[in-house]
Amino acid sequence: MRDSSAPLAAVPEVAAALSSEEPIVDDMQGGDLDRVMEIEVASSPSPWSRQVFAEELARDFAHLWVVREHPGAVAAAFLNFWSVADEFHILNLATHPEHRRRGHATRLLSRVIERADRERARVLTLEVRRSNVTAQTLYRRFGFRAIGVRAAYYADNQEDALVMLLDVL
């Protein structure tokens, strides 16, 4: 369980990744779709279609955010999550290859956890490829733990997914 009395920026690894000149986290708009598709295709062996992202934008319980390195810049990273009842579920988090190692995924993950805490969500969950050790390391830094496996979850290569959970409250 996360110590909710300590702000995430107080976690040394998180604070180091968040610069004093913070990039902007915005709600994704339809005009961001082309760039989000670029990021998705560059980041995923089995990318979502443009139609899936458009459908996500239309769902009341779905939230899509982008990071812009400065006002007016194209998206450098994005996050898609659902909030349903007292649970948040991360569906997709990716950073454009040219913008990696700048703390964008950390920033997005920090913001979604803060929102889950503010909205009194009980848990935050996600699935991650068993082979994606980099993402698992990021999630573990925030206190996520593996709670199960979805066998042959990914259609492209039948790879297993680890189910990870963070207790928010």
Plain-language structure description:
This protein is of the alpha+beta class and 169 residues long. It has a domain at 8-121: Aminopeptidase (3-Layer(aba) Sandwich), CATH 3.40.630. The chain has helices spanning 12-17, 33-43, 50-58, 104-118, 133-141, and strands at residues 24-27, 62-68, 75-84, 87-95, 123-129, 145-150, 161-167. A seven-stranded mixed β-sheet has the order 1-2-3-4-5-7-6, with helices on both faces. Strand 3 (75-84) and strand 4 (87-95) form a beta hairpin.
What distinguishing features does this structure have?
single chain; 169 residues; alpha+beta; Aminopeptidase; seven-stranded mixed sheet; 5 helices; 7 strands
Helices, strands, pairings?
Elements (H helix, E strand, L loop, with lengths): L11 H6 L6 E4 L5 H11 L6 H9 L3 E7 L6 E10 L2 E9 L8 H15 L4 E7 L3 H9 L3 E6 L10 E7 L2
What strand order characterises the main sheet? 1-2-3-4-5-7-6
CATH fold type of the domain at 8-121: Aminopeptidase
Biggest sheet: strands, sense, closure? Answer: 7 strands, mixed
Give the number of helices: 5
- Written as H for each helix and E for each strand, in order along the chain, the element string is HEHHEEEHEHEE
CATH class (first level) name of the domain at 8-121: Alpha Beta
Query: How many beta strands in the DSSP annotation?
Result: 7
**How far is it from the N-terminal to the C-terminal residue, by CA?**
7 Å
Rg, alpha carbons: 15 Å
Provide the CATH architecture of the domain at 8-121: 3-Layer(aba) Sandwich
Uncertain stretches of 5 or more adjacent residues: none
Give the class from helix and strand content and strand pairing.
Answer: alpha+beta
Q: Can you tell me the overall shape?
A: globular
What oligomeric state best describes the polypeptide chains here?
single chain
Instruction: Report the β-strand fraction as a percent range.
Output: 25-35%
CATH superfamily of the domain at 8-121: Gcn5-related N-acetyltransferase (GNAT)
The proportion of residues forming helix, as a percent range, comes to: 25-40%
Q: Quote the average pLDDT.
A: 91
